[in-house]
Amino acid sequence: MAFMIITGCSQGDIIESNYTIKSGSSFGMCVGPCFQEVSVNESQAVLRIRENKGEGGLSELKVENKRAVSPQEWSEIQSLVNQEAITALPKVIGCPDCADGGAEWIEIQSPGLVKKVTFDYGHPPAQIKELVDRLRETRESLSLQE
Q: What's this model's pTM, rounded to 2 decimal places?
């Protein structure tokens, strides 16, 4: 009976419920707008850009842009979420931000699952490349609102 309870809810059920997708990039040895992250859910997209002051200074929020997400856009993004591929990937791929090459990530947050995959900037794993590219487009369109 306990086995049935544990396996009775698939991760597909978890991801299909209310969730947020995040995608971002960061550069450790950087001064200026070195951190960007977009959060997208069924109602809105939010871009946060943080600026590093240098010399170990804390990163402060420079920009926060928001806009509504249409049902069509959300459906398009959802269609690119390959839950099995994302959950099968390791937390870290390659050596993100080694030699100041930058790091990039994608994260799925839902009530029953948080999965983040970090990889070398500009080199997403093939399994999630289309989703990463689509979220980059959203990030770039929001950054133009400055």
A: 0.82
DSSP state of 54: S
Structure tokens at 79: 């269609």
Q: What end-to-end distance do the CA atoms of the chain give, in Å?
A: 55
86 burial (CB, 10 Å; 0-12 / 13-18 / 19+) is buried
DSSP secondary structure of 1-39 = -HHHHHHSS-HHHHHHSS-EEEEEEE-SS-SEEEEEEEE
In 3-state terms, what secondary structure has residue 45? strand
Residue 92 bridge partners (DSSP): 118
Q: What is the pLDDT of residues 47-80, one digit of tens each?
A: 998 888 766 665 777 888 999 999 999 999 999 9
Rounded Cα distance, 86 and 128, in Å: 7
Catalogue all structural domains in the chain, each as residue range(s) with its CATH number: 18-143 (3.30.1560)
C-alpha to C-alpha distance for 114 and 7, rounded to whole angstroms? 18
